[in-house]
Amino acid sequence: MVTIVTTNASATGSTQRTNPQSLVPPSKNEIPLQEVVDQRQLESTGPDNSLAFGDVERWNRPHVNQYRLAAIEKDYDLSYTVTSLVFLSPFAGYTLAAIFSDRLHLLFGRRGIALLAPICKVIAYVVIATHPSYPAVVTILALAGFGNGITDAAWNAWIGQLAHANQLLGLMHGLYGLGATISPLIATTMITKGHLGWWTFFYLMTGLAAVEIATGAVAFWSETGTKYTEANRADGKDRGMIRESLKQRVTWICAMFLLCYVGLEVSLGGWIVNFMIRVRKGEPFQSGMTATGFWLGITAGRVVLGFITPKVGERLAVSIYLLVALGFELIFWLVPQFVVSAVAVALLGFFIGPIFPSTIVAVTKLLPSEMHVAAIGFSAAIGGGGAAVLPFAVGAIAQAKGPATLQPIILALIILLLAIWLTLPRIPKHVHQA
Questions:
Q1: Which distant-in-sequence residues (6+ apart) come within 8 Å of 325 by Cβ?
Q2: Secondary structure of the chain: what % helix, strand, coil (to 5)?
Q3: Which one of 30, 180, 311, 348 is CB 3.0 to 4.6 Å from 63, fit for a cystine?
Q4: What pTM was computed for the model?
Q5: What is the pLDDT of residue 221?
């Protein structure tokens, strides 16, 4: 995850590295966001907390990267484009996870996933915590992406086939959203108040991943590869299902849907601060709070609407959520008032929040259980591609044309999401869960 905090050399205690050439120079008529933030800091009479929200962009999992990206950009003296490579690296790991997650389940079971995934993240976080060169950061993030990828496939597939899956997935993804709201505040405090380098946040990440190893081992120790094979292969053979799942139309529809959805979520969450500062002329701190409101809206939507979705049915519910979200996006775009925009984007987050868990439930209802891990792993990997490629593209467009281009892009993505979703086969009534 990558979010954005603006820091200076004295705050991070880092040594500047020079980049010979910026690949995408700022527009001649556009003031860089760093200068906007710095100027408003000087003009502000309140506490010096505007550094908590500065630049733009972030990686999706987890969202705290938004508060590290600008710090990374300044620390290594990089352009937006080069810094945005941190979006693409985890996608490579997610792709490998999509290929191997089903095979890893057959060999080691859920116990193996519960151990391997956090071990990958511990290794990656320890390396980053040493403050290595930027190419090393980009490279090692692929390992963290692999760990996150097999985690996504395993736990979404497992919970998706339990009773009351919508509610349980809503709670799980809601807790993820809660962590995504809290962790940027911790990272911001460490960087701006504690005057620590951005990489020190990975000390905390390493500790949490270590806790994940311990808790996962206890919870899934009995879930061996043999047990998984017997439960999910009718003939008891440990053949992989990735090829079979890719032959299913549902897999590809959900994969393309998640690509656009995750790209929408990450692009909006990553660029909203920039938009509110430059287009709505908000102060950095208040603009940053709109991003917090967006993620809180997603968290609340996943928990609250997770109990409503199964009563309506996933296909109809998601269609309604997207139409309502479309309305709030139009308000966000067309009403040029800061407060209206802040409220609209929070409500937009509320209605798009349950879409990811509802998609997972739809996959588990439309495909046989032996294909769940492979199909969900592939869909999550493609979704990771959306989180990598679309924000990268939005960043390039915003740098060339200005942050106002965010709104028509988001509007187009919502319309595209609705069109893709309506191609999904109808879910039989007898499999809807109350």
A1: 348, 351, 352, 414
A2: 75, 0, 25
A3: 180
A4: 0.73
A5: 93
